[in-house]
Amino acid sequence: MGDLPLNINIQEPRWDQSTFLGRARHFFTVTDPRNLLLSGEQLEASRNIVQNYRAGVATPGLTEDQLWRAKYVYDSAFHPDTGEKVVLIGRMSAQVPMNMTITGCMLTFYRKTPTVVFWQWVNQSFNAIVNYSNRSGDAPITVRQLGTAYVSATTGAVATALGLKSLTKRLPPLVGRFVPFAAVAAANCINIPLMRQRELQVGIPVTDEAGQRLGHSVTAAKQGIFQVVISRIGMAIPAMAIPPVIMNALEKKDFLKRRPWLGAPLQVGLVGFCLVFATPLCCALFPQRSSIHVTRLEPELRAQIQAQNPSIDVVYYNKGL
Questions:
Q1: pLDDT tens figures, 67-106
Q2: Rounded CA separation 189/146 (Å)
Q3: Are 219 and 298 in contact (CB under 8 A)?
Q4: 50, 65, 85 — which closes off a domain?
Q5: Of the four, 6, 150, 186, 270, which is 20 to 30 A from 107 by CA?
Q6: What strands lie across the sheet with 314-318, from one edge to the other?
Q7: CB proximity list for 210: less than 8 A, separation 6 or greater
Q8: Per its UniProt entry, which superkingdom is the organism in (predicted)?
């Protein structure tokens, strides 16, 4: 056994999650794109460190900073409820590089219907992977259910984008630049609930403060999904609202008129800069381990909890990301 004490609570994030600043520091670490560069061996080594420590065995020579680093590497790649390794582009650390590319292209190629359809489909396909990968709970979902949810989510989102685009034909060009944002905001309201519909059917696990599972709640699932929708829309606002204003001004300058090929990479860069800050800050709007008062739960679950432990007033759940 190493010199590291075994009383460090790595079940919780390193920073106080009751404050926005603490959650922001946590999510700046979780969404760090550099985590994508870690090898499979590094991920497995971090998982072993975390699992051994939770079992009461500290790796010899391990420092507290190394333990927390291993925990965040582990959290960045493995689902908190199922323990399964999340597909690479479904990890929150992939949000910035993936979204800066996709969003930049959506904002650049917004004039023609075929390109609108293509990039909205790419975006919603990516979102579907992220939404499924970062769902709450460990309830199984069949391939058929997953396929139906994906087709419904992407079709609804693309149809929304086309509908909004058709409304802007007679409006100023600057307004047309904001169609991708409006479409993405509306699509999030469709994509997230559909890709996580299993949670709305069977509920998500709720626990006491110590982490003991008490049952499954659809009410908690609804609250968690609503919070994720708000966070995702907030995440898109800076990246899809600021660059269009800047690009609209730059495209009137001779510098960009003589170099039109710079438009797309410049837009992607602006989006990436916004996302580096917007992604963790909007993830931090709500605690990932959210809470709900027992009185707001379904009657059956409420009665079950009160029968088992009448002193419990609040239960906790993973809202997903």
A1: 899 998 888 888 877 778 888 888 888 888 888 888 778 7
A2: 17
A3: yes
A4: 85
A5: 150
A6: 213-217, 204-207, 314-318, 289-293
A7: none
A8: Eukaryota
* Pair 53, 177 in one domain: no
Whether 10 is covered by a domain: the verdict is no
- CB-based contact 89:129 (threshold 8 Å): yes
Angle formed by the axes of helices 64-77 and 20-30, nearest 10°:
70
Closest C-alpha among 265, 259, 273 to residue 107: 265
Give backbone dihedrals phi and psi of 46, rounded to 5 degrees, phi first: -65, -40
Do 103 and 70 share a structural domain?
Answer: no
Give the SS3 label for residue 148.
helix
Instruction: Assess contact for 179 and 130: CB atoms under 8 A.
Output: no
Same domain membership, residue 153 and residue 195: yes
Strand 204-207 relative to strand 213-217, pairing: antiparallel
Q: Closest Cα to residue 176, out of 247, 118, 257?
A: 247
Q: Is 3 contained in some domain?
A: no
> What is the extent of the structural domain holding 38?
20-85
- Together in a domain, 178 and 102: yes
Q: Is residue 132 part of a domain?
A: yes
Residue 312 CB-density burial (10 A; 0-12 exposed, 13-18 middle, 19+ buried): middle
**pLDDT, tens digit, 9 for 90 and up, residues 227-245:** 999 998 888 888 777 877 7
The domain boundary, picked from 85, 102, 126, lies at 85
Same domain, 160 and 206: yes
CA pair distance 260, 320, nearest whole angstrom = 41
Q: Which tokens hold the place of 209?
A: 């403060």
pTM of the model: 0.74
Pair 191, 311 in one domain:
yes
Residue 194 lies in a domain: yes
Range 99-102 contact pairs with CB under 8 angstroms and sequence separation of 24 or more: 99/126, 99/239, 99/271, 99/275, 99/279, 100/239, 100/268, 100/269, 100/271, 100/272, 100/275, 101/268, 102/126
Rg (CA), the chain: 22
Residue 85 per-residue DSSP state: B
